[in-house]
Amino acid sequence: MKDKQSLNYLGEYIAKCQNPQGAIAWEPNGKVDPWDHVESIMALNLLDFKDEALKGFDWLISSQQPDGSWYSEYQGERVTNLNKETNFCAYISSGALHHFLNFEEQSFLEKIWPTLKKSIEFVKSGQTDEGDILWAKDNNEEWMDDSLLTGCASIFKSLNDFNKIAKTLGYKEFILKEEIKNLKDSITNKPERFDRTWESKARYSMDWYYPVLCGIHSVQDSKKIINERWDEFVVPGLGCKCVSEEPWVTVAESCELILALNKIDEKKAALEIFENISKLIDQKDKLFWTGYVYKDDKFWPIEKPSWTAAAVVLAANSLFEFNSTSNFF
């Protein structure tokens, strides 16, 4: 999997998960969520499935709500979760910038700009006076009064990507400065703003590596953060756990950790994890399972999500530099 062509079959699988309207489901005919849909578009971008990627953006344009949001989950054309999650809505800016960097067509950015602007207005409306961004609106259109560290870190990157698009198009009046500054301050200096109304999510590896992946910290501080909890989350020879206390390594989290490690010049460790997760496949079709329960020697759950395949493609690009987007994260 060290060259782009060898990963083409993963692009074909992701395309099979796309419905006629353009939404990319977790599996063929499965559920759709906007964040994972965008992640899958990024893999299509990289693997030159341009028509399918554009179709994915068309679905985002057509399904955007008047307030700039998307619902959290769909089944076909039916909405199955009425929450509106801010990090889901922000991520389209990252997907759009990634598409532009792959195909260098400014007309695409012009077309999708109104959609991006509306989505970021929705995200901004969830920012508190403390700088954190509330995680979602509920089915009554009320803000749910808590914030996610992983979600806010992802939003931080997406807002920066939105700024890059605004600069490219010459829309400097839309560039976000204070919002990003205040969001970063909340993540680095106000831990009490996260997990206020539920059990701490610090046991999830994403809370560990996402601030590193999304550029919150300096390289020096990031290395310290990664080293401090490495043994808690990384299983030698297998990959990265999803949850610290569970004997379960997951492919997507491992690939995101690879991206974070590459960001801080820890390529040797990143390569080792990539070699390890390359074994977590169905030997018949070479598709990746969600994860592996090593205590029971079982793949679980028995699913092969499109977004897991996409994460593998993005991680491979960061390691083997298929094109200039290898440093996107």
Task: List its traits.
329 residues; mainly alpha; Glycosyltransferase; 3-stranded antiparallel beta sheet; 11 strands
How would you characterize the overall build of this protein?
This protein is mainly alpha-helical. The chain has a single domain, classed as Alpha/alpha barrel (Glycosyltransferase). Helix content is 51%, strand content 8%. It contains 12 helices and 11 strands. It has helices at 8-16, 34-46, 50-63, 86-103, 106-124, 149-169, 178-189, 205-213, 219-233, 251-263, 267-277, 306-320, and strands at 31-32, 73-75, 78-81, 84-85, 136-137, 143-144, 234-235, 239-240, 248-250, 291-293, 298-299. The strands form 4 sheets. A 3-stranded antiparallel β-sheet has the order 1-2-3. A 3-stranded antiparallel β-sheet has the order 4-5-6. It has a 3-stranded antiparallel β-sheet with strand order 9-10-11. Helix 8 runs parallel beside helix 10 (251-263). The longest helix has 21 residues, at 149-169.
SS strand fraction = 5-15%
* SSE pattern, N- to C-terminal: HEHHEEEHHEEHHHHEEEHHEEH
Widest beta sheet: strand line-up: 1-2-3
Bin the helical content: 40-55%
For the record, the count of structural domains works out to 1
Number of strands: 11
The residue ranges in which pLDDT falls below 50 over 5 or more consecutive positions are: none
By CATH, the topology is Glycosyltransferase
Total helical elements: 12
For the termini, the CA-CA separation is: 20 Å
